[in-house]
Specification:
Blueprint lengths: L2 H18 L7 H12 L5 H9 L18
Length: 71
């Protein structure tokens, strides 16, 4: 997958997590509707359920070095 699609996936997941937690959390059906309205895409119910069950990853930038730079 491309970097752009990974960013898009993270945006959709952040949107869903925000609306699934807090004082008035949305259920899965309502979340699917909100995602479709906001992003114009349909997400499979099980895909969203699995994604929400996974712990949120801390994203840290990693500088990639060429093999010769590691010596």
């Amino acid at each position: 997958s491309s970097a752009a699609s990974d960013v898009y996936k993270r945006q959709v997941l952040a949107f869903a997590r925000q609306r699934h937690s807090g004082r008035h959390p949305l259920g899965i059906s309502a979340l699917l509707d909100e995602i479709e309205k906001h992003f114009g895409i349909r997400v499979h119910r099980r895909t969203l359920e699995r994604a929400l069950r996974q712990p949120e990853k801390k994203i840290m930038p990693v500088a990639k070095k060429k093999p010769e730079e590691l010596l």
